[in-house]
Specification:
By secondary structure, the protein is mainly beta. The protein is built from 5 helices and 20 strands. The strands form 2 sheets. It has an 18-stranded mixed sheet that branches. Strands 3-4 form a two-stranded antiparallel sheet.
Length: 446
């Protein structure tokens, strides 16, 4: 399945598929010929990438942005040409990018999952130790068909652990000038109970700002429910000490002006049932891998695992997503269009590029109701493994969130993560109960 993809084209936002031809200009155009030519160009570029760390390195930066343009989404190429990104590129990794043996074996042997008329996974809770849709079924999905199986495979891979905790540093840049750095924490709990109210909850999540002091304590609390119900979202203001409930749509808005949205953190946070998704095609693109080697996951006394990231910090001159270990490698990506069912959503349309084997989202282009690109998000993942290789996870290490209208960039470095698989006993799971997440005077709001 080969397709020439464009997430934007002088404002018309069309996609040139080998099954048809939608034009951004009045000139005659052969979409099939362009797709074949682009495929050849990509294959030639990939063949010229270094094959190992010992070979002379290839730098992905503003100087090489034109050369590697066929291997990138249009927005990513624009970011690199502006000097917002710099890393190396390689033909392949020194290790196999994959989940653990048990996950892959069960995924390959899983029964065919089903969705209802609204795209909800049936039944729920699903098995969380495998993909609900076998990868070989995804491979046969036709361009133009529903992409719900792809979204569900990503969603289930995220909720396989019962608890997640992350700390991150966000460097804010405006027109390539550093404005400030903000630290935040993210905590998610994924209930594994099939009883009572717990069986209706997909996850509870708290995102809290830690520094600087002027905004310390600003928090977003999200409850996600099974089915068509909207997310329940509350915001805690440290200034007033009060909580106000907002709509699910607000979760896709910046936490405050110029900052990131809760929905953008740690990859893709959309709800499958509340969007109409379509497979646009597949393409081989360069994607960022947050560590050129497998990271170490340290087993803790409560059965959880801790992963620390080795970041090199950010350049004071430009918001480059850089790390001494970050490398870009070619991966087959599935381009999925997601249309919001909410007429008031600022994220009216998204194009998400999922890895075809891990279903991790490498790139996201977010468009508003006027079909204008409002945000572009690039996400780098790394592979972490325990010493006995029984615990193996793909984790977010870095993200770049670009707002083209203001030329503002939020560069996010995840400093550490703690993941608690089924069977572990994290002592602080109760920290995600509604009352403990808000100030006492706000109890009535919940």
């Amino acid at each position: 399945m080969s397709v020439a993809l464009h997430t934007s084209c002088s404002g018309c936002h069309v996609f040139l598929l080998i099954i048809g031809c939608l034009l951004c200009s009045s000139r005659p155009f052969d979409a099939s010929a362009q797709a074949a030519s682009a495929e050849q160009a990509r294959a030639l570029l990939i063949s010229r990438l270094p094959d190992s760390p010992e070979a002379p390195e290839f730098r992905v930066n503003a100087n090489s942005s034109t050369t590697i343009a066929p291997l990138l989404p249009e927005e990513m190429q624009a970011l690199i040409s502006k000097g917002e990104w710099e890393s190396t590129a390689r033909k392949r990794l020194s290790f196999v990018w994959r989940y653990d043996d048990d996950w892959e074996m069960k995924s390959a042997e899983a029964e065919v999952a089903k969705t209802d008329d609204h795209g909800a996974l049936v039944p729920w809770p699903a098995q969380r130790d495998r993909f609900p849709f076998r990868p070989d079924i995804i491979e046969r999905t036709a361009v133009g068909a529903s992409a719900a199986p792809i979204l569900w495979n990503h969603s289930i891979s995220v909720v396989r652990d019962q608890y997640l905790e992350a700390e991150a540093t966000v460097s804010q840049y405006l027109q390539a000038k550093l404005e400030r750095r903000i630290q935040l924490s993210i905590v998610r709990e994924f209930p594994f109970s099939n009883e009572g109210a717990e069986s209706k909850i997909v996850f509870r999540e708290r995102t809290q700002l830690l520094t600087p002091p002027s905004i310390r304590g600003l928090s977003w609390l999200t409850f996600r429910f099974i089915g068509l119900d909207e997310d329940a979202v509350w915001i805690l203001s440290p200034v007033t000490g009060k909580v106000r409930q907002v709509t699910e749509t607000n979760r896709g808005d910046p936490m405050f002006s110029g900052f990131v949205a809760v929905r953008d953190l740690l990859g893709y946070g959309g709800k499958v049932e509340r969007g109409a998704s379509t497979l646009l095609g597949s393409e081989e693109f360069l994607v960022p891998i947050g560590a050129a080697e497998v990271l170490s996951a340290e087993l803790l006394s409560d059965g959880c695992y801790r992963v620390r990231m080795d970041q090199t910090g950010h350049s004071p001159a430009a918001p480059r997503l850089t790390s001494k270990s970050t490398v870009m490698v070619p991966r087959r990506l599935l381009a999925v269009e997601v249309l919001s069912t909410d007429p008031f959503a600022t994220h009216a349309r998204e194009v998400v590029y999922f890895d075809s084997s891990t279903f991790l989202p490498a790139y996201r282009a977010v468009f508003n109701q006027s079909a204008e690109l409002v945000r572009f998000i690039a996400t780098a993942y790394a592979l972490a493994s325990s010493s006995d290789k029984k615990f193996r996870r793909a984790i977010v290490t870095q993200q770049l969130v670009w707002e083209p209208a203001s030329d503002r960039v939020n560069s996010i470095s995840v400093d550490r993560q703690r993941l608690c698989p089924p069977g572990s006993t994290p002592a602080d799971r109760t920290a995600l109960s509604p009352r403990s997440l808000v100030m006492p005077q706000s109890d009535a709001a919940l």
